[in-house]
């Protein structure tokens, strides 16, 4: 079963029609301006596709967590300003979501126009997936498009119920181009990766990613583990980890995983150790069996980076989630940057490289290597849930076809 996308509908579905597009414009604001427009840029292909075909585009998004109350601090108005600059044409804004003002603004649209509604989380029924909100949104348009991969793991009125209402009324509910790309890239890695397929998992907590590890283990050729997550595995091996972050109640689970995974699971052999997790801290490079009681493991060491690189160099598909250390501090960022470079080189020689997860993506961007990856996922939580093998509610409700 394949999720239908805007490319599956005929052009006649768009000309002169109102198309409601759920986007993820949950961007950082500073002094009433958009501080990082990556997420807005990511939707431009979908918006261009629709406006070029004469659609009247109505955008709906959330921003932050206003908790169902009207709060100017979370207004999407600054986003409309930035979107207008990027489109080279005015994106209108209406300070309403499903009320009379929004309906009037939607009806006033001409072919190729773009309208941004106010923050949908100003409505108490959005996060509770209420039918009333969904009906209000559905009433604005003839076609529904979900291009908000980053919000697809939530069953909210603008991601789930609205698509159900549209479909019940015989109107299309399809994926946008950004959503399509995310589903294709992550889906292919899980279902039919070119081999060798290497996954690299890091970050802080085993508990948060155990389902990802369980789902990936049978699919990958090698699973490389870094970050604080490796510490819990070290303990399972009987190693001393000093004052490092360890999930004590997951040590037994880590031991079982090691047993089950055998050679497939690759742990760091050396680490960057410090007495304090702060900038300017003094650091030591130590083998994993030499961590002193007062030390904290805060990054993988250079021998491990070299080993991980060997796996990446041989791979045809590499999937990475979670930094190799406390990468937000320069002293502990070298392992993460080293792995990012290895992936960039792999991309250059034709391998498929995919990076997902909020902090990993931030680290790759910070290293200036984001555009050297095949795919950088825009959805942190959503990509994790997808990699766990779960069906995303915002995807499950879209139209499907039986072809492959
Ligand atoms: P992502 O957002 O990419 O999924 P996570 O949120 O799981 O990644 O993990 C990122 C966090 O893990 C960062 O805050 C980083 O500081 C922390 N981290 C990684 N390695 C270590 C470590 N060795 N010790 C302490 N914290 C770590
Ligand atoms: Mg994170």
List the helices and strands and how they pair.
Blueprint: E1 2-3, E2 18-22, E3 29-30, E4 33-34, H1 38-41, H2 44-52, E5 56-60, H3 77-87, E6 91-94, H4 100-107, E7 114-117, H5 131-138, E8 143-146, H6 157-168, E9 173-175, H7 177-191, E10 197-201, H8 206-216, E11 222-225, H9 229-236, H10 251-261, E12 265-266, E13 270-274, E14 283-287, E15 296-300, H11 302-314, E16 317-321, H12 334-348, E17 352-356, H13 358-366, E18 375-376, H14 380-387, H15 393-396, E19 400-401
Parallel strand pairs: 2-5, 2-8, 5-7, 6-7, 8-9, 10-11, 10-16, 11-12, 16-17, 17-18
Antiparallel strand pairs: 1-19, 3-4, 13-14, 13-15
Helix pairs in contact: 5-6, 9-10, 11-12
The chain binds adenosine-5'-diphosphate and magnesium ion.
Adenosine-5'-diphosphate binds at residues 203-204, 208, 227-228, 245, 297-298, 321-323, 325-326, 328, 357-360, 380.
């Amino acid at each position: 079963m394949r999720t239908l996308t805007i490319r599956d509908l005929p052009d006649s579905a768009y000309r002169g029609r109102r198309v409601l597009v759920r986007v993820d414009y949950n961007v950082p604001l500073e002094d009433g301006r958009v501080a990082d427009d990556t997420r807005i840029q990511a939707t431009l292909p979908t918006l261009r596709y629709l406006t070029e075909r004469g659609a009247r585009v109505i955008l709906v998004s959330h921003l932050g967590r206003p908790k169902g109350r009207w709060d100017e601090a979370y207004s999407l108005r600054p986003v409309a300003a930035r979107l207008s600059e990027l489109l080279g044409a005015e994106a209108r804004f209406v300070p309403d979501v499903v009320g009379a003002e929004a309906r009037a603004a939607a009806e006033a649209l001409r072919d190729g126009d773009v309208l941004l509604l106010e923050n949908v989380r100003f409505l108490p029924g959005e996060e509770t997936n209420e039918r009333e909100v969904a009906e209000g949104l559905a009433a604005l348009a003839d076609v529904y498009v979900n291009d908000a991969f980053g919000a697809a793991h939530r069953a909210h009125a603008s991601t789930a119920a609205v698509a159900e209402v549209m479909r019940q009324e015989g109107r299309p509910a399809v994926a946008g181009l950004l959503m399509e790309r995310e589903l294709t890239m992550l889906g292919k890695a899980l279902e039919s990766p070119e081999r060798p397929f290497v996954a690299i998992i890091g970050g802080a907590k085993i508990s948060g990613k155990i389902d990802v590890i369980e789902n990936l283990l049978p699919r990958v050729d090698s699973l490389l583990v870094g970050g604080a997550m490796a510490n819990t595995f070290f303990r399972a091996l009987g190693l001393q980890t000093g004052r490092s972050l360890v999930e004590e109640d997951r040590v037994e689970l880590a031991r079982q995983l090691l047993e089950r995974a055998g050679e497939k699971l690759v742990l760091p052999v050396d680490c960057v150790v410090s007495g304090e997790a702060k900038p300017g801290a003094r650091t030591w490079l130590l083998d994993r069996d030499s961590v002193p009681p007062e030390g904290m493991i805060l990054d993988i060491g250079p021998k491990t980076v070299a080993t991980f690189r060997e796996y990446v160099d041989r791979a045809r598909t590499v999937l990475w989630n979670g930094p190799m250390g406390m990468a937000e501090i320069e002293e502990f960022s070298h392992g993460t940057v080293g792995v990012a470079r290895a992936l960039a080189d792999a991309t250059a020689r034709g391998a498929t490289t995919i990076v997902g997860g909020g902090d990993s993506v931030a680290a790759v961007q910070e290293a200036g290597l984001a555009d050297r990856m095949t795919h950088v996922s825009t959805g942190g939580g959503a990509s994790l849930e997808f990699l766990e093998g779960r069906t995303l509610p915002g995807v499950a409700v879209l139209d499907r076809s039986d072809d492959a």
